[in-house]
Write a structure and sequence with these properties.
By secondary structure, this protein is α/β, with parallel strands linked by helices. The protein is 29% helix and 24% strand. Strands 3-2-12-11-13-14-15-16-17 form a nine-stranded mixed beta sheet, with helices on both faces. Strands 1-18-19-20-21 form a five-stranded antiparallel beta sheet. A hairpin with a 5-residue loop joins strand 24 (448-457) and strand 25.
């Protein structure tokens, strides 16, 4: 077992995250400082405080009371930020969902969350309406944005209601152990699971993060993943606001040209990224890139950052990337590389306030250098999944340990190296194989733009290694690619690890978090 740095601080008994992340800036005299950049407008901390308070009063006017749940399903915007903070300030429980889901997905979430109010916009209103047709919840829709015509009974224009709301709001005196928000698991292997967290959990996560990548009041933070990804919501938005830094928001889908445009326009000093976007930015011709010398810090999460991709990024842009590993259940990043101490391909060392151990099938700790199931614990950890008793027992173990489901190796310098998911390890010809090892090797091939490797059962119920590949020259180059890729892998891997078949795609499907959507790939083979 290894513990991260012990940070000396106390969590006050009376704690409200809305005030903790936002009101502190007015108390520290930063009311006139820029908090948000959005489109061609800037919002000061005072502007955001007033907007948040008005949204809070709108919530209260619609009957939202302490412990009621509020669900956000809208594109990134100042209204998203204000609604999240307002839910905390009135003592409600904040929840959020991806904006690209289908109506049946929203029906599932509405039934799970049972929100008093759902905040949507023009991009999500129709699909959420459809999902809510036979649902008892929500009691009201708040529709953000300018296109709020033809609203139905129970639907209200957020902009109009904000216009007539008071910008003074009494903050609910919540306790540090009151529920504050839900995280959601990614849902790449099934329906997303709700993970409730208390007010204290977020403060502990902030304190841990600040010892690794603390923001200052001069920082401008650009978020590549959307706010419904808790990595972006916490590490990119909330932790920046608490520090008096400014945050760049955009509602559009993230693309490499857009990210370069935003870098050129706002000159961010920190960027939260994901490996998929890093690859897209590297593949952008140099004459189409903006100068990125403004970036002093880059962070990556969501998927393991391969050493090859890290080296290519460093060669192209000159800024080290800190790879971080966390989970919805842990409430914080429990592994992270440190500035100036990055080991490419590793997930770094244990973060402050976290504990980790690697165990075998019997629960005994494994020696250094041996793969083991990673367990983690901290005071920021959740305790259960909503409506998932059996899965909760398998994940939330005794003595507050969480079974992450990930296999790691710990080296002699206490860096941790990701081997794969325990539930994705496959046995081929009686020998265990990590698809992630095959995937990382395949990523080294110059013809491969992106790839995923899975264990897929064939018609006889036998597991075969299947590779899904997007080539740099597109799917039209697939005719001769399979033999070339197999030769490439044979030079580097044992024969039983070579994929039996390759599926060539123009682009691999992605989740809203920017991860490759492996569930969609599995369904493609059914």
């Amino acid at each position: 077992m290894i513990k991260g740095e012990l940070v000396e601080f106390s969590v006050p008994e009376r704690l409200n995250l809305g005030s903790y992340y936002l009101d502190v800036n007015l108390e520290n005299g930063r009311g006139d400082k820029t908090a948000l950049y959005y489109q061609d407008r800037t919002y000061s901390f005072l502007d955001l405080w007033r907007l948040t308070n008005r949204v809070g009063n709108v919530f209260k006017g619609l009957g939202v009371e302490p412990e009621n749940r509020v669900l956000l399903i809208l594109e990134d915007s100042p209204e998203w930020v204000a609604a999240w903070l307002a839910a905390m300030k009135v003592g409600a429980v904040g929840t959020h969902a991806y904006t690209y889901l289908k109506p049946h997905d929203y029906a599932y979430l509405l039934n799970l969350v049972k929100p008093k109010v759902v905040v949507v916009d023009k991009t999500t209103l129709e699909r959420v309406r459809e999902g809510a047709k036979n649902a008892r919840y929500p009691k009201a829709f708040l529709v953000a944005g300018e296109s709020t015509r033809d609203l139905k009974p129970g639907e209200f224009s957020l902009g109009e209601m904000i216009g007539s709301a008071d910008d003074r709001l009494e903050t609910e005196p919540t306790h540090r152990d009151d529920l504050a928000f839900w995280n959601f698991t990614g849902g790449t292997t099934g329906k997303p699971k709700g993970v409730p967290h208390m007010h204290r959990d977020s403060v502990l996560s902030y304190q841990s993060f600040s010892r690794i990548l603390g923001y200052n009041t001069d920082d401008i933070v650009l978020l590549v993943p959307k706010l419904f990804f808790h990595y972006a919501r916490d590490n990119g938005l909330l932790f920046a606001l608490r520090s008096g830094a400014a945050v760049i928001l955009f509602g559009e889908r993230a693309t490499a040209p857009l990210i370069f445009e935003l870098i050129g326009k706002f000159r961010p000093t920190a960027m939260l990224n994901v490996p998929t976007m890093m690859r897209a930015m590297i593949q952008t011709p140099k004459h189409e890139r903006s100068d990125v010398s403004c970036l002093r810090r880059c962070l990556s999460s969501g998927e393991v950052l391969s050493p090859q991709l890290y080296d290519e990024w460093l060669s192209n842009f000159g800024t080290e990337v800190l790879d971080r590993f966390g989970s919805a259940e842990s409430g914080m990043g429990y592994l992270c590389n440190r500035p100036g101490k990055v080991r490419p391909g590793s997930s770094g060392t244990v973060t402050p306030l976290a504990e980790i151990k690697l165990v075998d099938d019997d629960g005994s700790e494994v020696p250094r250098g041996q793969p083991g199931l990673l367990l983690t614990r901290s005071d920021a950890s959740a305790q259960y999944y909503v409506r998932e008793h059996e899965k909760s027992k398998a994940t939330f173990l005794g003595d507050e340990w969480i079974n992450t489901g990930d296999i790691f190796i710990q080296d002699e310098q206490d860096y941790f190296w990701h081997v794969g998911r325990a539930d994705e390890m496959v046995k081929v010809s009686g020998v265990w194989v990590s698809p992630l090892e095959v995937e990382r090797t395949l990523q080294e091939c110059p013809r491969v733009r992106e790839c995923a490797v899975l264990g897929i059962k064939d018609g006889d119920g036998l597991t075969k290694i299947q590779a899904f590949v997007a080539l740099r020259d597109g799917a039209e180059g697939a005719a001769d690619a399979q033999n070339e890729l197999q030769r490439f892998l044979r030079e580097r891997l044992a024969p039983h690890k070579i994929p039996r078949s390759f599926d060539f795609l123009d682009e691999l499907p992605k989740t809203g978090q920017g991860k490759i959507d492996r569930r969609v790939l599995r369904e493609r083979r059914l």
